[in-house]
Amino acid sequence: MRPVHVVPAAVVLLALGAVASAAQFVSPAAPGAAHPVMAPQRVAVTSAARACPPVPGGGSGQVAFIAGTPATSPSASGQAELAPLPLAGAELRAASPISQTAPGLLSMLTTPAAQSASKKPAAVLQGWSVTASGTMAQALEAEEATGAGLGSVRCGEPGSDIWFAGPGQQHGAEQIQLDLMNVDALPASVDVDIITDAGPVQAGGDTGITVPPHQTVTAALSSLVTGSSVVAIEVRTSIGRVAADVSETPSHGGTASWLPSTVPPSTQLVIPGVPPSDSTAGLYIVVPGGANARINVLAITAQGEHQPFGTQTVDLPGDSAAYVPLTPLGGPASLELTSNVPVTAAVLVPGSGLGAFTVAAPPVTEQAIIAGNTTGSGLGVTIVLTAPAGRARVRLTETAATPGTTSSQVVTVPAGRTLTVPAALPKGVKHGSAFAVVITPLAGSGPLYAARVETQNQGPVVSILPGISALTTITLPPVRDSYAAISP
Fold this sequence. Notes:
The chain is mainly beta. The chain is 3% helix and 46% strand. Among the domains are: 103 residues; 93 residues, Sandwich (Hypothetical Protein Tm1070, Chain: A), CATH 2.60.290. Strands 19, 20, 21, 22, 23, 24, 25 and 26 form an eight-stranded antiparallel beta sheet that branches. β29 and β30 form a beta hairpin. The radius of gyration is 24 Å and the shape is globular.
């Protein structure tokens, strides 16, 4: 049961009395007169935060990082930096923050390995916070990347309700680790709910986890999901907020794969960037409520829309998680799921380790940025764009670490179609260098979903990153006088 916060009656009565007293000095409105309502306001983003998970196994890492926009003046106000989030309870040597000062340019920043304060050195896990203020907070994006500059997992925003879905131990995930990072100055209290193909799991000690300020807590979940084929994880906070990441290590060895966080359960989802695969890709679906779900799956391809399961629906009981093999989609695609009850979902494409994951994502607003891309050593970059409801005109801009090294093109995605566009290094940039891709839907476009797909020698999929909006402005909702302002 989620905690219920009770406010003493005396406090409420005191507040109501204060409002009533103040009302005596205000002229009553004429009967039927409308109360003035402030219009929504568009304001610039002036503060942003992300968190990068610990490098699996410890050690140093790379972060592909952009803060500010290309139009931001070098002398603009604000700052951006990476700061360590040490493992809670670990005695580590202090590490200095890493500053980023070039607005709107890609930086590949090396995060040093955590150093134990004891005489016997040992690999220690450590997350990193990514924060920016002032104009440097606009269009902030960061990804944990490989040494070659390939983004492997997005550094996520702190939140209070975060979802993951993917394979369990019977589908090759021998070790499952949850990383919780607190970028704030107050402690966070976290509950972890798990659903498998066998139903809800009693998490036991994984409720009420305290994540201290500016620290990282890790939890091994493998023992809780023994024998499962599918695992769905909900991370929710009752106090504060956290960023969360899940990594899975395959039973046959090799590197761990990251599960990207998927959108919270909804009756309509879009999973962008599902590439063609020589072997069977899999759809993981989670039904967190008690009601049974009836789910329609639509594939949106370059040729149009079709139903990969024919006229059949995917019927699942409540409080369940399931794996559904996908038939070949006939090329890169996005999946649109429509359900009678809220669900969430992810897709696994076979590849290195467990494979590459893409997940249900929101539409792109303003722009999305994929910071870590590379074309060296046979790697190829493709941007997959889907416009499910209306035609979209999209500007794709590639930019590197050197000022002035950009290239741009405008493409049109027909309504109900998926378009794939190769991305490449801007001219004048050293071959094999990392570069960023900015995906900007132009005015008048319909909803746009995007993902970056990286392949090896035009074959196996190495990495998929859904495009998530990197905002420069936000909309403040309208406000008006209301007694609800004092309601607990």
